[in-house]
Amino acid sequence: MEGYGTVLDSNETLSLIGVDMIAEASRYGDAGAAEAKPTEASVKQLEEPTSVWVGRSLKKKPGDQISLLINDEPQTCTVRGVYDDSNGNDSAIVMDLAGAERTLKRKGRVDRILLKLRETVNTE
Question: What does DSSP assign to residue 41?
């Protein structure tokens, strides 16, 4: 799911991307299994429409608040994580798909679905 959000402090408009984070986490299997097992609290944080992950260029850290304008509505969101965004070149606001669906008011709609098929699958 895709949309846009404006960081109110800087007036910077960024892409807002909704990702199925639970499904994506399962793609990495047992890598870091001790830290990778979701707890009930972490799953609830994922589903909160105010939980966001932002690029390092925004100079935020987990637990910080960030004021955003999304769909002409101001929202105060909690930064749950920070990713390397190559000095702002790839900066975006990332949310779990469920939170993005509520925030962008697009219940039951997605913009695209990424399918990964095994090499042995005949696509014809």
Answer: H
Residues 6+ positions from 108 with CB-CB distance below 8 Å: 101
pLDDT digits (tens, 9 = 90+) for 77-114: 999 999 988 766 678 999 988 888 888 888 877 777 77
pTM of structure: 0.73
Domain residue limits, the chain: 2-103
3-state secondary structure of 52: strand
Which pLDDT belongs to residue 37? 57
Count the alpha carbons within 13 Å of 94 in the hemisphere toward its beta carbon: 18
Which residue, 60, 45, 51, 48, is CA-closest to 12? 60
Instruction: Answer for the pair 67, 7: CB distance below 8 angstroms, yes or no.
Output: yes
